[in-house]
């Protein structure tokens, strides 16, 4: 073998090994890291503590749970009924009108927000390639079905969302649960 052929073989092997190393590095980078928790980072929790924390909070019935929302709704309904009993007939009629106006304003606001969201989704779809659009549709479906935090997370699944068709008097403004910021 001549010296030139030997150098070419050595260069080929170096390039081949460099490509393999780069491929392995990119493969590791593509692996999704465990979601980071600002609280766990702040407390400098060990991996075991992080897992225990995740388990504790995934099992905790908090203000974002369906049972909690149902209890809040029941308490608000009871409160509203008790207030109605305190009122005279003219006061009760005015109270019902206020509740109805509030429910209408909240419904109008929800429709405005939904319209703005739908417009943003449509604009987003226009800038995507067909492959990106397909992936985006899957993400949007997952968001619609489970919310950003998965079932029970922010947004929750439809069974965790408050119905919007309640009578005006039964819609307490404070009965919405607040999901944890960190899951």
Explain the layout of strands and helices.
Elements: H1 3-30, H2 38-43, H3 47-59, H4 66-86, H5 89-126, H6 130-146
Total domains: 1
Largest sheet: none
Question: Taking Cα atoms only, what radius of gyration do you get, to the nearest Å?
Answer: 28 Å
Quaternary state of the chains: single chain
Q: Which structural category fits the helices and strands?
A: mainly alpha
Percent in helix: 55-70%
Number of helices: 6
H/E series, N to C? HHHHHH
Q: Roughly what is the average pLDDT, rounded to an integer? A: 76
- Write down the overall geometry: elongated
By DSSP, the count of extended strands is: 0
How would you describe the overall organization of this protein?
The protein has one domain (38-170). Residues 149-183 have low confidence and may be disordered. It contains six helices and no strands. With 183 residues, it is an all-alpha fold. Helix content is 67%, strand content 0%. The radius of gyration is 28 Å and the shape is elongated. It has helices at residues 3-30, 38-43, 47-59, 66-86, 89-126, 130-146. It starts with a helix and ends in a 37-residue tail after the last helix.
């Amino acid at each position: 073998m001549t010296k030139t052929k030997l150098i070419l073989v050595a260069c080929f092997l170096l390039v081949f090994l460099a490509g393999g190393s780069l491929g392995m590095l990119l493969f590791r980078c593509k692996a999704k890291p465990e979601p980071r928790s600002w609280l766990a980072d702040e407390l400098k929790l060990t991996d075991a503590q992080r897992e225990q924390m995740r388990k504790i909070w995934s099992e905790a019935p908090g203000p974002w749970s369906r049972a909690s929302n149902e209890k809040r709704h029941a308490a608000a309904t009871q409160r509203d009924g008790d207030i109605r009993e305190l009122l005279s007939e003219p006061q009760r009629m005015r109270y019902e009108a206020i509740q109805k106006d509030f429910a209408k304003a909240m419904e109008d606001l929800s429709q405005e927000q939904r319209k703005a969201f739908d417009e943003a989704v449509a604009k987003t779809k226009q800038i995507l390639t067909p492959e990106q659009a397909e992936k985006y549709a899957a993400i949007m479906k997952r968001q619609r079905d489970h919310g950003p935090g998965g079932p029970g997370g922010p947004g929750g699944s439809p069974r965790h969302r408050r119905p919007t068709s309640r009578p005006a008097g039964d819609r307490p403004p404070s009965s919405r649960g607040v999901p944890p910021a960190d899951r």
